[in-house]
Design a protein that fits this description.
TIM Barrel; 12 strands; alpha/beta; Ubiquinone biosynthesis protein UbiV; metal-binding
């Protein structure tokens, strides 16, 4: 089973030392590719750009492929200036999460992030022509769509699929966390730092619905298709991505590593991975259903490798 393991960018606002401790542990683990950088909110200043580059350098020295991730929503002139400076880092591969970053890279190699809306072959060919060496499948795609997308993927362009972690669903100029606490966005008190996995939202019927993380809206549940790793590898997916959460991240990476080494059955994975308190699992998108749903994988195993 041939695939590499990627750790996506940290989406949450964690204390400075917690971030450094987290990436030190990542450096000692089996992840092959690590994305670093602030992708959600430019007001988060526990780590500055220079700190993220220091983290990338530490990871590279540990043998990891470090990738600098760009902010997804560019709102101000200072955001645009920070984006230009990050894209000017010649020594690092960049994950572009919006088209402006691609323009600033001026033909250099990059990873097209999951927010680049690459839903069909023409978009992939366009991105590849601009310098993309890998793209991350849009997070709401199902396995049927992925099969079609892989058939249209240009030669030399790698495919990366997110397999574990809360799903970012949307970004807004409005800060939902600040609004929840009746604060102005520009005077938010950095309340995000109090919620290391975002802030859960429930319906009036007490059903988990969404999570808010500053300007980002996420799935309430942790998307978990770890058991599909073998299927994804057979389809031709090169990289499987884990998105950091406060609990379970290292166990998810270790499970993928065990699978590619052939020592852990896929069906044994999900139940053994801890999640942050109160967080449930979901995998509906992968099966072409509502993303919030959980479909028992054992009853829905389909070998789609032949369709790729």
């Amino acid at each position: 089973m041939m695939f590499r393991i990627a750790l996506g960018p940290l989406q949450y606002y964690w204390p400075r030392q917690s971030v450094f401790d987290f990436y030190q542990a990542v450096a000692e683990g089996p992840a092959d590719i690590v994305y670093v950088g602030e992708t959600v909110c430019s007001r988060r200043h526990e780590l500055r750009a220079a700190d993220w580059i220091d983290v990338a350098d530490m990871l590279a020295q540990a043998g990891k492929t470090a990738v600098l991730s760009t902010q997804t929503l560019i709102e101000t002139g200072s955001d645009a200036q920070a984006l230009r400076k990050l894209c000017a880092q010649q020594d690092w591969l960049v994950e572009a999460n919006e088209v402006g970053a691609v323009r600033h890279l001026q033909g250099r190699a990059f990873v097209a992030g999951p927010y680049m809306n690459a839903y069909h072959g023409d978009t992939l060919a366009w991105l590849h022509g601009l310098g993309a060496v890998r793209y991350v499948m849009p997070l709401e795609n199902d396995r049927e769509s992925l099969c079609l997308l892989l058939q249209e993927t240009p030669a030399g362009l790698e495919t990366e699929v997110a397999v574990w972690g809360r799903l970012p669903l949307a970004f807004s100029a409005r800060c939902f966390t600040a609004r929840h606490f009746r604060l102005r966005k520009d005077d938010c008190g950095f309340r995000c730092i109090e919620h290391p996995d975002g802030l859960l939202m429930e319906t009036r019927e007490s059903q988990q619905f969404l999570a808010i993380n500053g300007i980002q809206t996420q799935s309430a549940g942790c998307m978990d298709i770890l058991d599909q790793a073998a299927v994804l590898a057979r389809m031709g997916v090169s990289v499987l991505r884990v998105s950091p959460q406060s609990r379970g991240t290292f166990e998810a990476v270790a499970a993928l590593d065990a699978m590619r080494r052939g020592s852990t059955p896929a069906q044994a994975l999900a139940a053994g991975i801890p999640l942050p308190e109160g967080m449930e699992r979901c995998n509906g998108y992968w099966y072409g259903r509502a993303g919030i749903e959980w479909v028992e994988p054992a009853a829905n195993e389909v070998n789609v490798a032949r369709e790729a």
